[in-house]
Each structure stands twice: as C-alpha cells, then as structure tokens.
C-alpha cells in the first residue's frame, strides 16, 4: 500500500502536524483542512460524552440511538447559542453546570448566567427556606 506523508504548520499555534494519507489526488492543504475539520468533530463528540453524560445508549435500536444523539446535539446547540447571545466568558461546561444546579428555579436566564444575585421580589414566598 502506498501512502503519502503531508506536513502542515498551524499559523496560529505554530505547531507542526504530519498526516499520512492514501489520497494522491487532493492538494496537501486540502487534506490538512480535512484533518483539521475532523479534529473539530472529534472534540465535539468528546465534549458531548464528557458533559452530556452519554456513557451508554438507553436503547439498542437505531431509532433509540439516533434519538439520544439528536437530543444531545440539541442541548449542545442551545448551549452554544446561549453562550453566543450572552457574550459571557464562561465555558459551555460552566454554563451547563449552572443550568443543571438551577434546573427547577424560576429565574431570568441571562441574570442567572451573568451571576446576578436573586432579587427579593423574585423569591417564591411559598417555598420553604432551609435554616
């Protein structure tokens, strides 16, 4: 089997990468771009596995697996959109943890993400307080 060795230097980080491919038709830059895009997909699925707790699938059918993956994708996209809209410096992992901790709280979402303290008029008078 013949392989082609391609070198690539990332201009942002200065790191050098070496790729092996059996594709001799595409330009070296194109192959490097494909590997870079693939790495982003790998990081995306790593984030989903670490943060959305998909360690195993609930069902074994194709439909069950696809449903669970689509739900994870929707959660990821909603978090990414919130991060983009809020222009906060919090990581998506921090935002997810904050949302999980306040899942049953009735609060303004942006105030929660900014870390604004809970106002007295927002407190539920029917909620029991812990001493």
Q: Helices and strands: which structural class?
A: mainly alpha
**Estimated helix fraction:** 40-55%
Which term fits the overall shape? elongated
The strand line-up of the biggest sheet is: 1-2
Give the N-to-C terminal Cα separation.
72 Å
**What is the ordering of alpha helices and beta strands?**
EEHHHH
- Count up the helices: 4
Quaternary status: single chain
Strand portion? 5-15%
Biggest sheet features: 2 strands, antiparallel
**What is the radius of gyration computed over CA atoms, rounded to a whole number of angstroms?**
22 Å
Kindly state the mean pLDDT as a whole number? 83
Low-pLDDT stretches are none
Query: How many distinct folded domains?
Result: 2
How many extended strands? 2
Would you write up a description of this structure?
The structure is a single chain. The protein is built from 4 helices and 2 strands; from the N terminus they run E-E-H-H-H-H. It is mainly α. It folds into 2 domains: 1-51, no CATH class; 54-115, no CATH class. A hairpin with a 6-residue loop joins strand 1 and strand 2 (16-21).
